[in-house]
Amino acid sequence: MFEAEVKISLKKAVADPQGLTVKHALESLNFKGLSEIRMGKLIKLKLEAKDKAEAEARVRQMCEKLLVNPIIEEYSFEIK
Amino acid sequence: MKFGVVVFPGSNCDADCFHAASQVVEQSAEYIWHKDTKLGKFDCLIIPGGFSYGDYLRCGAIARFSPIMKEVISFAKAGGLVIGICNGFQILLEAGLLPGAMLRNRSLHFICKYVELKVENTDTSFTQKYKKGQILRIPIAHNEGNYYIDAPGLAELKKNDQIVFRYHGENPNGALDDIAGIVNKERNVLGMMPHPERSSEVELGSTDGRGIFESIVESIGKK
Question: Which domains, and CATH codes, for chain A?
């Protein structure tokens, strides 16, 4: 059994109004020196695979097929 | 002619679209359940608005893999007319039948109000009853209508005259280049965020959306 954590965020080129709003809110609470905040999604999943390489390949397929929209999003993942 | 209205769990404009097709432009219409794997004989498919699958993951991302979507994609690839409204537009984007993607509204608010649209292209089966430059008053109701496409994609849309509707005056959601509706390159698939089915009768406050349904009926009649 493997555990994967997939992190998805908007691409750099894509404006992130949610991140901007959270940044403004933190600044209004006097948290100084914030240069950027980007919001994203964290997907945790458990899967059966014969080894780590197979788990990685399957998670990548899931990202490409459904979890991520490559027009606006980028992703990374870790497998434990 | 015959309209088909695809119904997903969470669709909520399906009955309005069915009403526009069957009562307003008085054509035959039939609901199509998203789990169906065979498509009957239709002239135009409507992918209605709503919150298919609760908008989970991304709007339209899960509906895009509903069993019926294979048939919808084949129908579109064969030249059949497909119109996606609001969540239907999002589904067509996720399915790759139209280019680009939707982001959250710039204001982060769900916006439900009348907007003005400018008709940019009347040389489509969906807009031939309008005049180029005509201003339409049609309502929007969405949280993710902030259309995005990369620079080469936008250039391609412009080159092929695929931008059919632009927001006029105010851009409500931050959509790139004020884009409110686009067609595919072949012009048989239209996606638009505003709701023509909610603005096709005097009783609803506007009849400006009716032209879309009338254009479809006219173009099918000519075939």
Answer: 2-79 (3.30.1280.10)
